[in-house]
Amino acid sequence: MVNEVGRRIEKGLVNEMDKYPLQVRQLPKSGYPDIEIDYNGYIIYLGMKTSAVKKNSGFRFFYYTSGDKIIADARHLLLDIILTEETSRYWKVDSWALSNLSKLNVKVKKEFNISKSDLLEKYLQIVSSSGK
Q: How far is residue 108's CA from residue 123's CA, in Å, rounded to a whole number?
């Protein structure tokens, strides 16, 4: 439900920004960034993180996986919105913060993914119980 509320807030924010001399575009697919803003040729990428998490936590809260949506040298911002469900279907914004991601100290996690069928390719196998 929080994600649905976040999408509605994002649409409302884009509608409000359209009232100013900005070119605002909601980007396709989920994941960072969500919005591209062009102000007289200066590009800003904005990510929206809407949650009900109110306290500091060591758990992963935000992540970036690919640069498919980033096509310009730009400023990167994150809008963090904290919500509370007051009653069924009514959410209240408790707080928000706009952060400059260029000052973020990141932790890089190296990993790769492989499917089971890829792993069973004959050219990878040294020996197997099937004898084939």
A: 31
Let me know: does 7 contact 1? Beta carbons within 8 Å.
no
**Backbone phi and psi for residue 34, each to the nearest 5 degrees, phi listed first:** -95, -30
Which DSSP state fits 21? S
Q: What are phi and psi of 124, to 5 degrees?
A: -90, -25
d(CA 65, CA 70): 11
Q: How many domains does the chain have?
A: 1
Bridge partners (DSSP) listed for residue 51: 82
Query: Which residue from 54, 45, 44 is spatially nearest to 81, judged by alpha carbons?
Result: 54
d(CA 128, CA 12): 57
The CA distance from 53 to 83, in Å, is 8
Could you tell me the CATH number of the domain that includes residue 35? 3.40.1350
The 10s digit of each residue's pLDDT in 18-54 is 999 999 999 988 888 999 999 999 999 999 988 887 7
Confirm whether 24 is domain-assigned.
Answer: yes
